[in-house]
């Protein structure tokens, strides 16, 4: 009798995992508490996979040999607890997919910058002619690509939620950009639990593998002492220090590798700003490790198109610049956005608070922000922290109201910045929906 695989959640990750399980000959069942999008229903039907939506039928799930869980489902969901009680293994889609490919895995995580770094790394590898797929939090599901394609390399963006249910999977090149508080509501409001999840990207690495990380991150530095990693360590930093493989010297970015060193001026980089400097360094080191020619790396770094919803310039209207940073779903992301601003800012903040501590951006708000528009169902925490710290603080319950109020307060030469610090699920379907609505409202001014 074939092994029974149950997939919980039928989004990009779950549907892809179900297809791979079916292709490999397993008895597959898919269950989603929400309604399944038509494109995923059609995909499941195409492979004759049985599915249900809007509920979980326990007797069809608790008879599984193994369960693949979508990353959005928390560990304390009743169905997950029921599976744990019966000692039924629960894994991630990435863990499952990794069993069926010998491709080299370039895996990227961090509290901020991981999408940009993932897309930039993929851009460098693809432009250099490598047979490479893009997966994880961006691109198509890794499992679906393993089922239907034959890539030699994958560049994978990994969230802490995906890392939580990965056990035997190994990153040949692991990149850890930074660790700052995020998703603490999913980690029992315990920062160490979140740190441990991020460091899972290094698990199973051997002497043949590479770990790339930000040398100046205090959390990473402390954890490195505790982990005794076997992988080769390739840190990057703002300034040159012993052992650092990428750093800035005057206006040059220097990338060191065992056999060669090359540089690119900061003005040549397509991505500007201090945070993007680090993203470019991390991507460059990984490309160097893979022996990509320095000319190819340099060309890709200079012609890369940025990420939508991340410090995305939308329009300049009557002298006011509008920037969409909807992807800033935590305080540290907003810190990076504010740090890169060179004008006075009208800041649109708010959404579903994940246990945020706003002290991290307090001094930047003091120096650069003339007004805050609180966009959320419940703005009480924002008011409790920021009232009296900026000249103007107003509430908005829709994106149109927020944009209208921000434009009314802004003067020519100011920037209206949507950088919410929070998840979007109180008023919007996703951070993409939030950013798209912002752009629409700006264009309609």
Structure description:
The chain is of the alpha/beta class and 445 residues long. The protein folds into three domains: 4-91, NAD(P)-binding Rossmann-like Domain (Rossmann fold), CATH 3.40.50.720; 95-303, 3-Layer(aba) Sandwich (UDP-N-acetylmuramoyl-L-alanine:D-glutamate ligase); 312-443, Mur ligase, C-terminal domain (Protein-Tyrosine Phosphatase, Chain A, Alpha-Beta Complex), CATH 3.90.190. Helix content is 36%, strand content 22%. It has 17 helices and 20 strands. It has helices at 12-23, 38-46, 58-61, 78-85, 93-98, 114-127, 142-148, 160-164, 191-199, 218-227, 274-289, 294-303, 331-339, 359-368, 380-386, 399-409, 431-443, and strands spanning 4-8, 27-32, 50-53, 66-69, 90-91, 104-109, 132-136, 153-157, 173-176, 210-214, 232-236, 246-249, 252-256, 261-265, 312-317, 320-324, 345-349, 369-375, 392-396, 415-418. A six-stranded parallel β-sheet has the order 7-8-6-9-10-11, with helices on one face. A six-stranded mixed β-sheet has the order 15-16-20-17-18-19, with helices on both faces. It has a five-stranded parallel β-sheet with strand order 3-2-1-4-5. It is globular. The termini are far apart. The mean pLDDT is 93.
């Amino acid at each position: 009798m074939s092994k029974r695989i149950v997939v919980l959640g039928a989004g990009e990750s779950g549907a892809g995992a179900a297809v791979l399980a079916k292709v490999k000959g397993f008895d597959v069942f898919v269950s989603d508490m929400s309604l399944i999008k038509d494109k995923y229903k059609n995909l499941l039907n195409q492979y004759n996979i049985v599915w249900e939506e809007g509920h979980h039928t326990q007797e069809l799930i608790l008879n599984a040999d193994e369960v693949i869980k979508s990353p959005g489902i928390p560990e304390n969901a009743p169905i997950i607890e029921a599976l744990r009680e019966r000692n039924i293994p629960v894994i991630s889609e990435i863990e499952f997919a990794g069993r069926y490919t010998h491709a080299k895995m370039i895996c990227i995580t961090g509290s901020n910058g991981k999408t940009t770094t993932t897309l930039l790394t993929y851009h460098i590898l693809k432009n250099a002619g490598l047979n490479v797929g893009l997966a994880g939090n961006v691109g198509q599901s890794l499992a679906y690509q393993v089922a239907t394609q034959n890539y030699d390399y994958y560049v994978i963006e990994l969230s802490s939620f995906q890392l939580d249910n990965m056990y035997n999977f190994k990153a040949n090149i692991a990149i850890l950009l930074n660790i700052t508080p995020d998703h603490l509501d999913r980690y029992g409001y315990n920062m160490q639990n979140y740190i441990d999840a991020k460091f899972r990207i290094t698990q199973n690495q051997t002497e043949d593998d590479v770990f790339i990380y930000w040398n100046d991150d205090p959390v990473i530095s402390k954890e490195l002492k505790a982990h005794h990693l076997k992988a080769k360590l390739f840190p990057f930093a703002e300034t040159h220090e012993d052992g650092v493989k990428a750093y800035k010297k005057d206006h040059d970015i220097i990338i060191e590798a065992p056999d060669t060193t090359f540089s690119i001026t900061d003005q040549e980089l397509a991505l500007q700003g201090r945070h993007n400097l680090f993203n470019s360094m991390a991507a460059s080191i990984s490309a160097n490790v893979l022996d990509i020619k320095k000319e190819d790396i340099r060309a890709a770094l200079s012609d890369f198109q940025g990420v939508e919803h991340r410090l995305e310039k939308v329009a300049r209207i009557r002298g006011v610049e509008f920037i969409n940073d909807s992807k800033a779903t935590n305080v540290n992301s907003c810190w990076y956005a504010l740090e890169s601003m060179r004008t006075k800012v009208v800041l649109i903040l708010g959404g579903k608070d994940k246990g945020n501590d706003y002290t991290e951006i307090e001094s930047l708000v003091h120096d650069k922000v003339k007004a805050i528009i609180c966009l959320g169902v419940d703005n009480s925490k924002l008011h409790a922290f920021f009232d009296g710290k900026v000249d103007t603080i107003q509430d908005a319950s829709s994106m149109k109201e927020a944009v209208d109020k921000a434009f009314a307060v802004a003067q020519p030469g100011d920037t209206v910045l949507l950088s919410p610090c929070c998840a979007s699920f109180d008023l919007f379907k996703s951070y993409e929906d939030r950013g798209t609505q912002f752009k629409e409202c700006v264009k309609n001014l």
